[in-house]
Amino acid sequence: NAGVTQTPKFRILKIGQSMTLQCTQDMNHNYMYWYRQDPGMGLKLIYYSVGAGITDKGEVPNGYNVSRSTTEDFPLRLELAAPSQTSVYFCASSYSRGPEAFFGQGTRLTVV
Amino acid sequence: GNSVTQMEGPVTLSEEAFLTINCTYTATGYPSLFWYVQYPGEGLQLLLKATKADDKGSNKGFEATYRKETTSFHLEKGSVQVSDSAVYFCALREGGSEKLVFGKGTKLTVNP
């Protein structure tokens, strides 16, 4: 069981560079999420999607973009990286009627 | 809006000690409640859940009871082990909502 797979695991970006964090799930979940985790701050929701073609903003969407062209994939795009985006990013998925979410192992991003 | 407040960490215990991590919530409806655990370098895993008042979730010796009257979902374990060292997150999800709301996390260190 692969579950939720995120790539890359680690990345260092220079200020102003762009990158895409990949997330794919093989559980046929219709809900998918991106969170960022900052030390001592818990998890903050960046974007989420309730199905292919549908995305919506979470608490902290500025500086990020997402797309959901398939049920399986939910990439997160950083267009102009800033030091404030240094964080650990988690992708998660769930069934629409199931209350719990399943998480990937995270991407540790450093912007210098 | 919905929110989760959990006790500040870090918490340091000796092996076989009793553990309580407090969690209280604010919600407009009747949420499902969760405890997630994050071991070092890994993503979040569901530890236990409760979906209605007075339900008790349990797993790996951990327990938590959904108390609607006190809006609480405290995590307990009678005898902790070194392998329980991790960050514990309390979370809620309102019925019909797409979003999980997390507390800030409590870091537990268990010493031999």
Structural overview:
- The complex is a heterodimer of chains A (112) and B (112).
- With 112 residues, chain A is mostly beta strands.
- Helices cover 0% and strands 50% of the residues of chain A.
- Chain A contains no helices and eleven strands.
- The mean pLDDT of chain A is 93.
- With 112 residues, chain B is an all-beta fold.
- Chain B has strands at 3-6, 11-14, 19-21, 23-26, 32-38, 44-50, 56-59, 62-65, 75-77, 86-93, 101-102, 106-111.
- The chains are: A mainly beta (112), B mainly beta (112).
Q: Kindly report how far apart the N and C termini of chain B lie.
A: 41 Å
Largest sheet of chain B: 6 strands, mixed
Number of helices of chain A: 0
| Strands of chain A, total number | 11
Largest interface: A-B, 24 and 19 residues
Gap between N and C termini of chain A: 36 Å
Rg of chain B, Cα atoms, Å = 13 Å
Name the poorly predicted regions of chain A.
none
- Rg of chain A from C-alpha positions? 13 Å
Kindly state the mean pLDDT of chain A as a whole number?
93
- Helix-strand sequence of chain A: EEEEEEEEEEE
Kindly estimate the percentage of residues of chain B that lie in beta strands according to DSSP: over 45%
How would you classify the helix and strand content of chain B by structural class? mainly beta
The number of distinct helices of chain B, counting runs of at least 4 residues, comes to: 0
Structural class of chain A: mainly beta
* Overall outline of chain A: globular
